[in-house]
Amino acid sequence: MWEVEIRGMASAHALLAGSVLVGSLMPALTVENSSVYGTHLVWLYSVSACIAVVNIAVFWLLGISPPTKKNTLSYKLSRLIRSCLYFLLSCLFFHTVVVLYGAPLLESALETFSLAVLLSTLTTLRCLCMLGPNVQAWIRVFSRDGAMSVWDTSLQITTGCSVVGAWLGAFPIPLDWDRPWQVWPISCSLGATGGFLTGLLAAPIWIRWHRKQLTYKLK
Fold this sequence. Notes:
This protein is mostly helical and 219 residues long. It has one domain. Helices cover 70% and strands 0% of the residues. The protein is built from eight helices and no strands. Helix 1 packs antiparallel against helix 8 (186-209), helix 2 runs parallel beside helix 5 (124-131) and helix 5 (124-131) packs antiparallel against helix 7. The two termini are 20 Å apart. The model has no long low-confidence stretch (mean pLDDT 88). This is Phosphatidylinositol-glycan biosynthesis class F protein.
């Protein structure tokens, strides 16, 4: 059972890593003189869109999402609306946090919000795909010993790596190096994406290595 779940998770993570590559290549094929530095927002939204599409498709096909109590159209529509609302609130939350950490309040507001969209795609969207619009389930997963499956553990790892990656990406910005990747928010978005990829790679390895110590109990 462990091997099947870990292999399934590793395959899903490989597809998600591939979506980052596809999202990075798409602007080069559609936008003239495209580059990560020169047309960074195009790259950022392309990567975010590819990750979002693959995330939703993978978790829907694998059936990781929690089963709905009702199958009526109105109930499914309500879940979809709540999920969209939570994603928007997540973008506003990350935008506020980034501003509190020193990002310009009015200047480069679009760039700051774009970074918030990327962070929400890497973190909140995965919560929505795996747990649904259930805040209590989110709190349970990110609490101590709250993971109930390998997917919960992978969610913890990828979310933490994405946020830490964005935070680490901010360190080179104030340095007087005059490099193109120091322009806000290039290094932060690259750091978040790099952290996300690191989490995708680290999660299956860490879970496999510690599988004897992991005991998931139904709560």
